[in-house]
């Protein structure tokens, strides 16, 4: 498994990096060399956050934990991801025992099947979209009780969405029209 350790607003010490690598490598028994584990360590105010994402052959296992200690975070994140891996592999083994074709296991899992009868639009809302700068859109977002705000970017004439991120900063969705 390939391991990538990244940081954001936090300096990962060599000791912490060694501990993370050692503990994540224990998950190697579930994967081959094509799997990648990405660990992002960050600090937001006085809280330390660790995100662990493992990708392998179209599968994604993810855990995100926060605490006041980065060393504790790795001990919290790993069991979460390992439970996801074991749950998935047990599910696959059970289906193989029942004789389900491999193609069906990978592409027609009932758990992930789209069922239109279960989808229901509970509310519809019409609103005017105005041309605003990014700073104006942020002010409008802050004055509303929503987690996002839709506006027209006057620089390119496209509809954009600004949203508040968990870290406290903002993100912008800027679609490409085809």
What's the gist of this structure?
By secondary structure, the chain is an alpha+beta fold. It folds into 2 domains: 2-111, Ribosome hibernation promotion factor-like (Double Stranded RNA Binding Domain, 2-Layer Sandwich), CATH 3.30.160; 134-173, 2-Layer Sandwich (SHC Adaptor Protein), CATH 3.30.505.50. The protein has 4 helices and 7 strands.
Description:
- Mean pLDDT is 84; it is low at 102-112.
- The chain is extended, with a radius of gyration of 21 Å.
- The chain has four helices and seven strands.
- Strand 3 and strand 4 (59-67) form a beta hairpin.
- The chain has helices at residues 14-25, 70-97, 102-107, 134-143; strands at 2-8, 36-44, 47-56, 59-67, 148-152, 159-164, 170-173.
- Helix 1 packs parallel to helix 2 (70-97).
- It folds into two domains: 2-111, Ribosome hibernation promotion factor-like (Double Stranded RNA Binding Domain); 134-173, Sigma 54 modulation/S30EA ribosomal protein, C-terminal domain (SHC Adaptor Protein).
- With 178 residues, it is α+β, with helices and mostly antiparallel strands.
- It has a four-stranded mixed sheet, covered by helices on one side. Strands 5-6-7 form a three-stranded antiparallel sheet, covered by helices on one side.
């Amino acid at each position: 498994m390939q391991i990538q350790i990244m940081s954001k607003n936090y300096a990962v010490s060599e000791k912490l990096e060694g501990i993370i690598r050692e503990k994540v490598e224990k998950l190697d028994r579930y994967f081959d060399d094509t799997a990648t584990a990405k660990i992002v360590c960050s600090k937001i105010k006085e809280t330390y956050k660790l995100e662990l994402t493992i990708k392998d052959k179209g599968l994604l296992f993810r855990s995100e934990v926060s605490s006041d200690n980065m060393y504790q975070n790795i001990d919290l994140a790993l069991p979460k991801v390992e439970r996801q891996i074991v749950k998935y592999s047990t599910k696959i083994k059970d289906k193989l025992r029942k004789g389900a074709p491999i193609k069906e296991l990978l592409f027609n899992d009932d758990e992930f099947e789209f069922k239109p009868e279960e989808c229901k639009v509970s509310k519809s809302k019409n609103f005017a979209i105005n041309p605003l700068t990014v700073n104006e859109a942020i002010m409008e977002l802050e004055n509303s009780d929503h987690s996002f705000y839709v506006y027209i970017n006057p620089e390119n004439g496209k509809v954009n969405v600004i949203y508040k991120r968990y870290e406290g900063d903002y993100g912008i969705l800027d679609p490409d029209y085809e």
